[in-house]
């Protein structure tokens, strides 16, 4: 018998039908052709062996789903309910990735900032505008916290971190839903079935105890009795289905996300991903932009700083009101214009000169925006939008200093440090009691303040 016909060398899954008069004998160890009596073995299917960690994610995900359903139907304020949910998610994510987190000091800073924002509604109940902003800042910070804990990325790999952040929202909550059913099915097999039966028996024995204890507690405390009565009074078939649907869907998404955090593949920066930009092109772009900024700065020094005079039909308050927010947006765009050449272009003296000029022009733009804001507040009073704009200008001024540091120290992670600084700036703004600042500033000018109605939420007055 030839080697290729030996049952020892063929896969176990292949059916053995000895060929007759095989004109093309295969070399020893070569794949067996299916048309000579051997069927190709199927590709081995990866079978997951679920352990105690995978099983522990089941009650954790169910708890997240149940909490979400309870908070969606609670009478608490939106800020308190949603922030409590995010705070529980922060604790759950920390528990899932404790080994990685306990050695990462930067992530502990992010966790502390997120916690401060979560408990903020308990301390400051008046600032509606800041509270609304926390509803997108907190989940954004939490996603950065979670993805940074499971990825092998440095602070300088901004593009890869952005991809990981987006993956956390649009991929990980869905890609491992099948493992929820796999872990559940594995839990019901073999020796584990006895444990599940014991848990179900314990829950079944708890039910009659609750039927006795709950009425006694309800009769002992009127408030607790009203809460309990309202819970059962509002139950119906449709409400039960709604509760079940919300809890089930949230549980599936939560388990998929936690499973990816615990067992998923860590994202790494691809090698040679950096594509250098042409230094000459970058210098030309920044030089032309700087000339435009120079002309604008000359106008600012003439009309805004020196007060040389304006057209007859234009007051200084109107002049300031027209351009403050536009200058703030341009300053933010300048950061991108500064960062891309610095990160992706080949270093040179000409490039450093152009970047230095751009930073100088940006400082003049910030000064112009500050003067305009001061004129606006003096005439129209302080609103949340103007307070936030002024606070953001202080942050941008600090960023200009960091840009100079980045030009001197190439290894300095500019964008990541700016992101952490912005989060810190935002937390400080919230804990400085912005409503009190607005009322105090307007009272000093004899302006009546209506909190929560300062025009920030109106698109028509957003740039006022």
Structure description:
The protein is mainly α. The protein contains 18 helices and no strands. Mean pLDDT is 76; it is low at 1-20, 35-39 and 453-464.
Layout of helices and strands:
Layout: H1 52-72, H2 78-96, H3 98-101, H4 105-118, H5 120-123, H6 128-150, H7 158-170, H8 172-175, H9 177-187, H10 192-220, H11 222-233, H12 237-263, H13 279-305, H14 316-344, H15 349-380, H16 384-408, H17 414-431, H18 434-444
Summarize the model shown.
The protein has 464 residues and is mainly α.
Query: Would you count the extended β strands for me?
Result: 0
Tally of DSSP helical segments: 18
Instruction: Work out the strand percent.
Output: under 5%
Terminus-to-terminus distance = 92 Å
Largest sheet: none
Stretches where pLDDT is under 50 for at least 5 consecutive residues are: 1-20, 35-39, 453-464
Mean pLDDT figure:
76
Helix content estimate: 55-70%
Task: Briefly note the structural class of the backbone.
Answer: mainly alpha
Written as H for each helix and E for each strand, in order along the chain, the element string is HHHHHHHHHHHHHHHHHH
What integer value in Å does the Rg equal?
Answer: 32 Å
Shape: flat
Features:
single chain, 464 residues, mainly alpha, 70% helix, disordered N terminus, disordered C terminus
């Amino acid at each position: 018998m030839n080697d290729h016909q030996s049952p020892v060398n063929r896969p176990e899954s292949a059916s053995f039908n000895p060929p007759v008069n095989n004109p093309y004998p295969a070399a020893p160890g070569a794949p067996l052709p299916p048309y000579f009596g051997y069927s190709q073995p199927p590709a081995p299917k990866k079978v997951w062996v679920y352990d105690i960690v995978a099983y522990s994610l089941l009650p954790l995900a169910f708890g997240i789903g149940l909490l979400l359903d309870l908070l969606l139907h609670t009478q608490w304020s939106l800020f308190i309910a949603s922030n409590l949910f995010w705070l529980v998610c922060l604790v759950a994510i920390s528990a899932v990735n404790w080994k990685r987190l306990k050695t990462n000091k930067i992530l502990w800073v992010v966790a502390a900032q997120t916690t401060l924002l979560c408990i903020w509604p308990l301390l400051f109940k008046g600032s509606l505008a800041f509270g609304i902003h926390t509803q997108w800042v907190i989940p954004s910070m939490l996603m950065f916290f979670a993805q940074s804990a499971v990825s092998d990325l440095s602070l300088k790999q901004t593009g890869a971190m952005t991809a990981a952040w987006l993956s956390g929202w649009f991929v990980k909550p869905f890609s491992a839903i099948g493992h929820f059913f796999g872990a559940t099915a594995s839990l019901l097999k073999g020796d584990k079935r006895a444990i599940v039966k014991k848990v179900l028996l314990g829950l079944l024995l708890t039910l009659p105890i609750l039927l006795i204890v709950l009425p006694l507690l309800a009769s002992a405390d009127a408030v607790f009795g009203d809460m309990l009565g309202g819970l059962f009074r509002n139950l119906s078939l449709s409400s039960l289905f709604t509760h079940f649907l919300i809890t089930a869907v949230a549980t599936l998404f939560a388990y998929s996300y936690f499973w990816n955090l615990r067992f998923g593949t860590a994202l790494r920066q691809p090698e040679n991903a950096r594509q250098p930009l042409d230094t000459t092109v970058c210098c030309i772009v920044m030089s032309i932009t700087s000339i435009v900024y120079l002309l604008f700065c000359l106008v600012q020094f003439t009309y805004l700083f020196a007060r040389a005079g304006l057209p007859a039909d234009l007051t200084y308050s109107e002049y300031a009101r027209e351009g403050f927010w536009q200058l703030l947006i341009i300053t933010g765009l300048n950061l991108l214009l500064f960062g891309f050449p610095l990160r992706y272009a080949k270093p040179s003296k000409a490039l450093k000169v152009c970047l230095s000029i751009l930073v100088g022009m940006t400082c003049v733009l910030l000064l112009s925006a500050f003067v305009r804001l001061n004129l606006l507040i003096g005439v129209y009073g302080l609103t949340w939008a103007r307070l936030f704009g002024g606070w953001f200008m202080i942050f941008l001024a600090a960023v200009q200093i960091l840009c100079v540091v980045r030009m001197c120290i190439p290894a300095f992670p500019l964008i990541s440090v700016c992101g952490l600084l912005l989060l810190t700036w935002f937390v400080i703004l919230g804990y400085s009691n912005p409503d009190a600042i607005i009322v105090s500033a307007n009272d000093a000018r004899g302006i009546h303040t209506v909190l929560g109605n300062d025009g920030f939420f109106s698109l028509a007055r957003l740039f006022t």
